[in-house]
Structure formats: C-alpha cells, structure tokens
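task queued by scheduler; priority normal; single chain, no ligands, no partner chains; default sampling; output format set to structure tokens
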Amino acid sequence: MPTRRTLQCIAPIAALSLGNIALAQRPAPDPGAVAEVRAKYSKRELYLTMRDGTRLYTNIYRPRDTTRTYPILLMRTPYSIAPYGADAYPAMLGPWQAFQDDGYIFVNQDVRGRYMSEGYYSFMTPHIDHKRGPKDVDESSDTFDTIDWIVKNVPGNNGRVGTWGNSAPGFFVAAGMIDAHPAHKAAYPSAPMIDWWMGDDRHHNGAFTLAQTVNFLASFDQPRAGPTQSYPARPDPGTQDGYAFHMMQGPLSNYAKGYFDGKIAFFDSISAHPNYDSYWQPRAIWRHMRDIRPRVLVVGGWYDAEDRYGPIRVKRSLDSMSTATNATFVMGPWSHGAWNRAEGDTFGPLSFGTATGRFFRDSIGFPFFSCALKDRCDRTAPKVMVFNTGSNAWRSYDRWPPRDAKAVTFYFREGEGLSRERPASPNGSDQYVSDPAKPVPYTQAVSFGYWRDYPTEDQRFASRRPDVLTYVSEPLAEDLTIAGPVDVSLHIASTGTDADFIVKLIDAYPLSSPAETPGGPRMDGYEQLVHGNVFRARWRRSFERPEPLIPNRPDSIRFSLEDVMHTFRRGHRLMVHVQSTWFPLIDRNPQKYIPNIYRAAPNDFTRATMTVFRNASRASAITVRVMGAPER
C-alpha cells in the first residue's frame, strides 16, 4: 500500500456562470423536480486533492433531515456533474428516483482531466497493479482517495459507500472496485466499458466502429486548456445520413485532418495502434478483477448498441478471477442504459408483455443497494437474472451460461439451408462479390451515429442483396431456446489479401405474423436480428500479430457473436447471414492487406470474391447452446 497524502479540500466554490454551449443544448430540467431536490438536499461544491496532488471537482448533496445517518452513493463521470454552482440543482439525484426519495448522501465527481477537474484524461485509464508511490495513480486510487475523504469528512454518513454509473461512468465503477476502500460496500457497473479493442464502443474484435466513434469523439475529445464547464459542440456534418457522409469521407486516413480538423488526439492514438498491442491491453480493465471485495451488480442490455460486451466480460472475469465476490449478473431486453430510466415493455416493434425496466429497478437494483448499504435484506439477490427474448420471460440461474445449455451445431447447407446434419459431400461452397464502393448498410434508418433500434431490425433489406449469403432452417416443430455464446466456424477463401466476415443470427418469422405492439407493424416474414458480430481475417491467428490472407487459398476463422438468450418459437426459422461489409457501423476493409488499415489510401480499396465452404472437410457452421438439448 503506498504512502497516502492527507487529502485536502479548498473552500466551497462560488456559484459559476454556465455560459455553456453543450449544457445549453440539454433539455431544461423540470422546475418542480428541481425544487423537490432543493427542498430535500443541501449542496456543497469543493475540490478533493488526490494522492498525487491533482484536484478533482466534486459536489455533495446531503439530506436536510439530519436526524439519522445515510449511506453514500458515489458517481464519477467524464460527462460533467452539471449543474455547476452552489445553488444550482439537478432534477434528480442517484441512479433513479427511489434513491432520492429513500435518503442517501449523493457525491458526484468530474474525473481527472474532464470538465472542472484538474489533470490529464486518459481514455480507459490503465490499472496499476503494484503502486510504488503517490505518483502511481489510476481510477482505483482516485476512487479510494475520494471515498476515504468523504467517509471521514461528510457529516451524517453511516460509513458505507456504493458506486454507480452507466457506460463510461460504468467503467469508473468497474475500475474503482479493484483494490477497494474498506467502506466501499457495493458497486453497480451499468453497461460498463471494459475493453475498447475487443468490444464495446470503439471496436468489435479490433474492427473500428466508424459511425459511433466519429460521432462521439468529434465532441467528447475536443481539446481543453484547463478546467472548464463546457466543450465545443460536435462539428456539423451537414447531414444526418451517416451512410452518405462516411462514404464521402473516404478512407479512415482522411478523418484526422478532415472532419476532425486535427483536434481529436485519441483518434490519432487509435490510428497508431491498429492491433491488440501494449496500448490496448493495459486498458482492458477486466484483466485486473481479482478478489473484488464490494458486492457487485453488473447489468447490460441484449439490445445495447454500445456497451453490450462490457457486462458479459465483467461477469466472465468475476467467475474466473474473483470467485468469492457476492455478484449478481443481469441482462434484459434493453438499449443502452434503458433499464435505469425506461419502462422497458417494448423495443422497436417487439413487445415483452411486462415493464422489464421497472421490474429491474424495483426488484433487483434498489434492493441490491438497500441490502448492502442499509441492511434491508428481505430478499435474496439471484446470481444470474436474464430475460429470455422470444419467450418474454425472466429466468434466474446459479451460473451463466446455464448448466443445462448444451452445444448444438447448425451447418451451412446447399440451397441456402441450415441444418444440424453435417454436410457429407466433398464439394460445396457459396460465393459473393464484396465491393467496398457499395458496402452493405447495417440499418435502413437515416442516422449519423449508432441507430438505437438496429439490434432487432428487420434484415430483409440485407437478405435481398447479392453480396449477403443467407442460410435458413426449416420451420421449427417446437420452441428452441438458446442461452450463452454463439460460436462461429467459417471456412473461407478470398481473391483479396484481407477481408471482414460479418455473421448475423436472425429469427425469421412466419409469413403470417401479427403485430406485437398496439398500432405497430405486422410481423409478416420479419427477419429479426438476434445478434451479429464482425471478424477481420488478418487476426484469425493472433490479435497481436496480423497476417494477410493468401489469395484463393482456403483458410479458417473462428470467433464468437457473444452471448444471447432467445427463444425461436414454433413455426419460426433460424437464419444466418454472412457478408463482408456492415457500413457505417464498421469501417470498410480495403480487402487488400495494409499493415495499418488506418493508413489505407483510396486506391487500396478493391472488390474481392469471397468463398464460404460448406462440405465434409470444410463445414462452416454456428454453434449455439440449447436449453434442454441432449448431449451429442
């Protein structure tokens, strides 16, 4: 344990003028809600000094009722703890309304290098396992130092602290629960960013998430000279048609001096590190989740377009590296963070028949903190609680994937078939031409960043393209429920020296299917995306050391689509798509091997013919975990 400086704070900061372009664009808070918070809570603003001398801007909201003690809820964020000013109050405190009503001390903090805090902001701050002195700081030490100060100096606290945050703040929760302070009793990493190369917002298996990253970094990573209440707004792209915009930009190398105008330093870092190297691996916080002491509630959404990977990866790390941790894992039918705010009874055209978000908040989330921080333990938290999409039911298990989920393989067959029977023929393959000049869109919507509803969008627009292979099963005679990862085994060849392979698992509805939501569209023949993912062929043997394909030589690629829990209902069919572009969700592969794909020039992009083999010796397939399936 390093020597700890005595943490200091300066006098409360006077009310600050907002003058803030970014904040001014936010909807005006409800005056009645603001008045309610002001009536119940007092506010204090101050700087807390970390062990290395960096001061982090912090505000503290204490209940005005001082007749009892309260636990502390700490949220550390790079997204601003506005409103700034001693008499400026938000419309709500805490993860959702129930916490504010029940009584907690709420502490919010701008993380180092963001908004009003001092220091340098490091994206996905690498964790330091062995700290040798006060200059060795990371998000674990900043969380420790913050908790140490508030439990010793904030009147009326009961000595227990819970941390919470969604998305990027979820990363700070995950990082902060490592080497935790003794008072740190509960951690709620909600949709946490966990590994920005393997998954989450910036990459999928190393493939660059073009639309989301360009949209995000254009505003978030604007330079600053020091503490500030605002950042410049995102430059106007001139259109919300992301497909058209990104096609006009051309190769990734054009963005740095083009749309980004040389101001986005993190994009330069991404461009300099195309492989899973010593820049990215230390930022994979899941690698450090040993012996986690606080209780953990890790939550994610099956339909989260941003950080679906994070909660699943955290769960896996806790299972393997921190087996004694009291942890609950929840996945529901939600978009990014929707479980914290929405009813959760529908998603796009799908209906779940129940308010899944409210169920989570009332039956899992709020009781989790009440037990850990207030000793109200009237119900036992499940180890695993997941929503089965398709059958629309919550299921609880003692482990994930469930014990009775058995591996079943579906093979690509002739005539666009998908079958459990392995091909017997020595011959069999399908081909398509992939053209980077006319990439397959990932959505039919007009959207500049991620389109929220794409994770369940009807895929018929892709099925009808000649550069998308489609394999589909016979109609199911009975319900089929899958739970756990979906593994892909592709046997391929290309006329080029690099290629992307996108694989999508789809639930194909019968041609006569009623609407699921009141007033919604009929679901006749709907091809619902269950989940998809991308793999770049250069990393088929190693994420650290890429290799080109040898033109026309058969090769193999194996990867995972990540986890799902979904029931394909009787009469529905399993469908699989294979394609080589997914634009602009994923950047375009030139299909010519360029050691650093971010340096590809316009004339490097070339058409290529892709071959997918489906024969006895090269049997391309997907493997799912089927509930109740017999051993095979």
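post-processing summary
- The longest strand covers residues 480-494.
- The CA atoms of residues 52 and 137 lie 7 Å apart.
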